[in-house]
């Protein structure tokens, strides 16, 4: 069985965030995101938008898995990063026989830049591949 998604962040040299997305079988995409949640005031609207986007990821993976012929209800669990710069957000997804982990930085999930959107799309695609 394949390993789950591995997406980690680290970049002590520039103060930015390096996001790596891919699976443990050496498919890795890197992206540097200099914006932080700390630059904005945290509001209920931001929290709600974050949850809407996480739900959209779950919905997209469910649809992709179903369309690929795996007719299981997708289970999900989250581990939201808190503290400095909100950290890495982990979404664990599971079908009856496989699991995938989507780990993205808070700013990437909430980002509207094409690179942020592409990182989320790539993570969705990787999760679908892992679960089918």
Labels describing this entry:
globular, 3 helices, 25% strand, alpha+beta, 132 residues, 3-stranded antiparallel sheet, 36% helix, two-stranded antiparallel sheet
What's the short version?
The chain has 132 residues and is of the alpha+beta class. Helix content is 36%, strand content 25%. Mean pLDDT is 76; it is low at 1-37.
Give a description of the structure.
With 132 residues, this protein is α+β, with helices and mostly antiparallel strands. The chain has one domain. It is built from three helices and five strands. The chain has a three-stranded antiparallel beta sheet. Strand 4 (88-94) and strand 5 form a beta hairpin. Helix 1 (44-67) packs across helix 3 (114-131). The longest helix has 24 residues, at 44-67. The termini are close together. Residues 1-37 have low confidence and may be disordered.
């Amino acid at each position: 069985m394949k390993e789950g998604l591995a997406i980690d962040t680290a970049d002590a040299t520039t103060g930015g965030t390096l996001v790596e997305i891919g699976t443990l079988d050496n498919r890795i995409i890197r992206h540097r995101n200099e914006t932080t949640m700390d630059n904005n005031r945290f509001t209920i609207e931001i929290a709600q938008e974050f949850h809407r986007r996480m739900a959209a990821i779950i919905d997209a993976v469910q649809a992709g898995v179903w369309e690929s012929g795996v007719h299981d209800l997708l289970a999900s669990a989250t581990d939201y990063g808190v503290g400095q710069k909100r950290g890495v957000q982990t979404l664990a997804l599971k079908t009856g026989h496989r699991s995938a982990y989507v780990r993205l930085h808070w700013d990437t999930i909430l980002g509207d830049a094409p690179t942020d959107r592409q990182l989320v799309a790539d993570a969705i695609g990787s999760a679908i591949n892992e679960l089918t």
